Every structure is written in structure tokens, then in C-alpha cells.
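Late entry, written up from scratch paper. The run itself happened at the end of the previous shift, but nothing got recorded in the book at the time, so transcribing now.
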Amino acid sequence: MSRISRTLSVVCSAAVIAAVTVGVPAAPASATTTTVDCTTDGTTTGTFTITDNEVTDDSACTGDVIIPNWVTSIGTDAFRGSGLTSIVIPKSVTAIGTAAFSNAAGLTLVTFEPDSALHTIGQLAFNASALKSIVIPRSVKAIAKQAFTNANGLAMVTFEGDAPSFVGADAFRNVAPGAKANISHAAREFGTSGIWNNLIVVRAAAPLNGALTPEFGAPVRTADGFTVNVTNFDGEFTWVANAGGVLDGVLTVTGVDPGVEVTVTVTTLRDGYADGSATVTGAAREGAEAAPVDARTVLPSVTCSPLPAQVGSLVTCTVAGGVSGIDILWRVAFNPTVAGEGLTLDASGSGEFSFTVPVAALGQELTIELVDWAAPMSLGVPGGPVPTSVPSGEGPVTVWPLVLLLALAGGLVLRRGVCAQA
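Output as recorded:
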């Protein structure tokens, strides 16, 4: 075979493949008229004609039809009075002409391909068709008068985008009673009356914010149930439990027999948010089981050294007798306050912290406080007026303004004292 013959063979084979790959006729190479079969389940049921990329008319076309994807418009009267039952319109089509599907009494389904470029639906385009519903592409800008008039089974029209900028008179006259226009939550051009061109407007709900899923600490047994902290409690939500209740971030469950485990579902509710839910399992105490220790009721003692101290001295305070694992915020009160956080008591309930006495403490009363960081409460004793002497018992650590020593030494002397237990 010559080189020229082989080349022609390849070109011809490629043309045949392109024509049959998608199951519809390939676009003609130049302006021409093409006849396309209407096929249903592989059976030819009439034909329709395409001239210069426009469907112009049909001949006894019935059943299901797919318009080739190179067609750009469906012309006037193209399928008027035909026996079509469904049609797929490609995204290449920009216009549907006057009466294109008028009196197609069996036409119940029209499908537009995604990303449709359809711009115009002509006058009487679907007049007296059998449509039950239709989705109008967001690209549509004009619906001519009487486009869907007398389509008396049409009950639902869904608009992908906003309202077309032009809608002719009686476009949806004599459709199904109570027919609806389904629109997105963001659409703004359908008015505020709730009725648009004889259709009842149904606006989709706005997308919901993400759910708040409850998170829990460790359950604490009680005599007849248990309590558990909700670690991500947010008062902007409503908290609903199927047993017990949530108040100020604590789930309390009662009415539980000793030793019996109960699983509780807690749900969060808020307008504009998806519902969130989670479960937690707890049990009531059994028999003589001791009640748990509440770390917030065990007040540690504090001792500080060196005392007395001068401005610039590093003072170290030892905390003892607390509950292990509790986080402590410590404060040394004068102006400005020296404060620290992150002191976590060790396994023996002890810990220590240090601070440097600043110049700002000159003449100021000094008080050391400990605060339970998880649930703030004072564990120390706030200072009062500077005493004339330091009692031998418990009391706050105070700084005495010793005027004569300050004048001579320029320092601040701390009188001996102890941090009080509240």
C-alpha cells in the first residue's frame, strides 16, 4: 500500500470513530442540513432536521431524544405537536425558539446539561406540554410571554440562579394549581410578596453552620448518679440531655441505682447551626464508696523565703497540702501586680513558685493569693491595712514601709509572715 493510501485510510478511520463515539451525529464540516434519527431504546422513531446548527423541524419524532452537542439553537416550531416524551438539551444551545415544543402533549421531561449556556426561552416554547417540573439554568436571562402557558401539569419550576431579567406576560399562566418556584437562599430578584409570575416562591434555607459536638471531662460518681463537666460549653447554644440536665457547663444525672451505668446523649441546638450530639457514660457510687475529693475545697498552705527581703530579692514560695494535678494561678498583689500561671501541683499536692520584689513594691502592701485556675476561687487571704506587728498565727505576707531604713539603705524590708489558709 502506498504512503498516500495509508494516510487516507487513517484519516477516514478517525472520522468514523469521531462520528460514533458519543452516539450522536458529528458536526458537519460546513453549513449544511443534517437529518438525525430519533431513537428510543435503540429503535428509530422518526427524524429531525438540523440546518446551520439549528434544529428546524421533525418528522414523526417520538419517545426520547438527545440533541447533538454541536447544536446552538432549537428553532421555531421545531418539535411542535411531536410525540416526544423526553429530551436532553446540550449546554451548547443558547436559544429555544417560538413554539419549539408547543402542544408536545407527551413531553414530560426536559433535561439541560450542566453548565448550560441557554439564554432565551421563546414565546409559547412549552405551551400545552405535559411537563410536571423543569429546572431553569442559571444562564437564562429571558422567558418570553406565554412560554409555559397551559402546561397545566407543571407544578414545580426550579431556578438555578436568580430571576431572569425579562419575563413576558402570562409566562406561567394556567399551570398546575399552587405551582411553585424553588429558588436558592441567595436569590434576590423574586420580590418579597411570595408570589412571582403566578408561582408560589419557596426559598431554600441558608446553609447551616457546623455543629457544636459536646465534649466531656471525666464523670464523677454521686450517691444517685453522676456529674460531668462539659469542657466546650457555650451558653449561646441550648443543651438538651435525654437524662438529667446541663446547667452552666455541668451535666447532672440523678435517679441512678448504685453501680449502674447510664449512657446519656447530649444535643446542642442553635438557629443557623446543625445539631450536634455526643454521649457520655457514668454510674452512681456503690455501697460505702467514698465521695470524691473536690480539689477546689482543699486549700493548700504557703510559706515563702527569704523573709524579710529587699527590693530586687528573689522570693520562693512553697505550696503544700493541695490536691495533685490541680493547676494554680498565683498572684503577688501590689502595684503593678506580679503574676504567674502554669504551676501544677505534683503527686503529693505540692509545688513552688518564685518572684522578684520590684521597686514598685516600695511602700506597698503585699498579699500572696492562689487561685484554682480550672474554676477560679481565692485560696489566700487578701491583705488589709498594714499591721503594726505580725501575729504569730496565720496571716497574709505583707511588705512594711520602713521609712528610716529606706532613707538609710534605699531598700524594702519584708516583715516575717505566712500566707494564710482561707
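The longest strand covers residues 43-51.
(Scratch paper discarded after transcription.)
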